Amino acid sequence: MAFAFAGGAGGGVAAEPLLTARFFRQVLSGRWFMLFACLLIMSSSGATYAFGIYSRELRSAMGYDQQAVATLAFFKDLGANLGVHAGLLNEVAPPWLLLAAGAAMNLAGYLMVYLSLAGAGRAARPPPPVWLMCAYVCAGANSQTFVATGAMVACVRNFPGGSRGALLGLLKGYAGLSSAILAQLYLAIYGGGDATSLVLLIAWLPAAVSAAFLATVRVIPSRRRSSSPGRGGGGSRARDDDVFICLLYVSVALAAYLLVMIVAQKQTIFSHAGYAASAAGLLLLLVLPLAVVFRQEYRENNELDEEPLLAPPPTTAVTVADKTAAALPTASPRHGGSWLSRTFSPPAHGEDYTIPQALVSVDMLILFAAVACGTGGTLAAIDNMGQIGQSLGYPPKSVDAFVSLISIWNYAGRVAAGYASEALVLSRRGVPRPAMITAVLLLSCAGHLLIAAGAPWGTLYAASVLVGFCFGAQWPLLFAVVSELFGLRRYATLCNIAAAASPVGSYLLNVLVAGRLYDAEAARQHGGALPAGGGDDKTCMGVDCFGRSFLIIAAATAAGAAVSLVLVWRTRGFYRGDIYAKFRDVT
């Protein structure tokens, strides 16, 4: 028996049956199911954000000092953000190849980390040296760039005509929740215990999810949709906005559920059956967007069926092929002269830059410097949150709680920045999206100063909220700005070039500043030199362990905010115009 929604999209037209083979084929081959697949992929791809959970296990089992742990965190950040090679591969290969490469790298890298941790306690198997562990962590984290590039670039190209900030905020928001999702599934599957089993889950689960959707993630030719002029777009954009709002509600419910579960599990002892029940609710919320996908595909199917009944539009000399060719990414206009002169003569904002033109662009250099300061500082806080709490005397259960909750604030920053910045960009004033980057950097300074103050109770909770929120907020803003200023033709490579600012900032502010100053203070507390053994002998206690570090980090972040104001000034005219005009008339 076939079921149908009551009433058609056009009012008086009878709705076609819903549960038919034709309709299921339409859903599985459509762009909305592709988006659903990308949300699931992103929800399992952010294992790098769980580093704060198992970093203490690495420190104690391997006998590393804090600078060695900071170096591991740097190589984790380097792998997670150095994706230029993934972007270049995306220029010549289909998305499924990027997903397959990412799955293989994730499995290989994190499996070696797991085997190293599992064998560290055995006398016959000494732990690997720091440089080898750095290679394992970097390889596993680098898989994230392949997966994120394949998923995000396909989504941006399948939804080019608007809501770009909302789309990227949603995708990055699910990635921000991934460490909390993985932690809940780890408790349900392995029952908790030690962090070694969490690393094993991180090795196989993201690879399995990516492999399951290899054939789904692709660039899909758009079907005919009506549109109307205007700054924010017309009917097609309004319908897409409705779907993104529904998906936002689902993601908020998912984040709220994770928040409740994390808090409850820190206050109450759960049985293995209790963890399994909570994971079942989590899986239900993860597949709930399928209902939104079915509803939207049903609406679009009815609209396509009704279009022949409408009066045909007036014919003009411009054909559909002409309009499509005008809107899709094309090569930048080639001026006369040498390659060097063309490189230093970039097109206007919003046109398609070549890779060399973007690399020497003042806008890209400003964006790179601002993001290096912003993400470098917030990553230093996130990667060291466990040690910060320990040095300030917080109970281990409290430390674990706000390390886990950073994932929730990370998500909140991503979706809030994506949706709010989209509304401001499309407002009557046309607020430049880089202005939101400035605001986020200034807000993160408050979190760094709270950590530097080192008050014994309460302030670290507030700092974790601010730092997690601001770290998450920077990513959809960065990727949206790159797509808007430099075009979509080389978007896969350019967004990875911009993201490479994150490991640069992490090395400067985490390894060279936070790691060295922590070890110097720990050596002072232990009589001038760190003990040769591992474990708690190398622990630093007190405000001075991270106080000076985060004063320096706050100053660097404020400098990044000042630099980003230059980009706000340079792009104010572009954002006052209609940034989506070139895509609106694609049919």
Structure write-up:
- The protein has helices at 21-29, 31-43, 51-62, 66-81, 84-92, 95-119, 130-158, 164-190, 195-212, 235-267, 272-287, 289-306, 320-327, 339-343, 355-359, 362-383, 385-391, 396-425, 433-453, 459-486, 491-499, 501-525, 547-576, 581-584.
- With 587 residues, it is mainly alpha-helical.
- Helix 19 (433-453) runs antiparallel to helix 23.
- The model is unreliable at 5-15, 224-233 and 309-333 (pLDDT under 50).
Quick structural summary:
With 587 residues, the chain is an all-alpha fold. The protein contains 24 helices and no strands.
% residues in beta strands: under 5%
- The counted number of beta strands is 0
- The helix content, as a percent range, equals over 70%
**Given the structure, what is the number of helices?**
24
Shape: globular
- Category by helix and strand content: mainly alpha
Cα end-to-end separation: 35 Å
* Oligomeric assembly: single chain
Largest sheet: none
Spell out the blueprint of helices and strands.
Blueprint: H1 21-29, H2 31-43, H3 51-62, H4 66-81, H5 84-92, H6 95-119, H7 130-158, H8 164-190, H9 195-212, H10 235-267, H11 272-287, H12 289-306, H13 320-327, H14 339-343, H15 355-359, H16 362-383, H17 385-391, H18 396-425, H19 433-453, H20 459-486, H21 491-499, H22 501-525, H23 547-576, H24 581-584
Helix pairs in contact: 2-7, 2-8, 3-4, 4-7, 4-22, 5-21, 6-7, 6-9, 8-9, 8-10, 8-11, 8-18, 8-20, 10-11, 10-12, 10-18, 16-19, 16-20, 16-22, 16-23, 17-18, 18-20, 19-20, 19-23, 20-21, 22-23
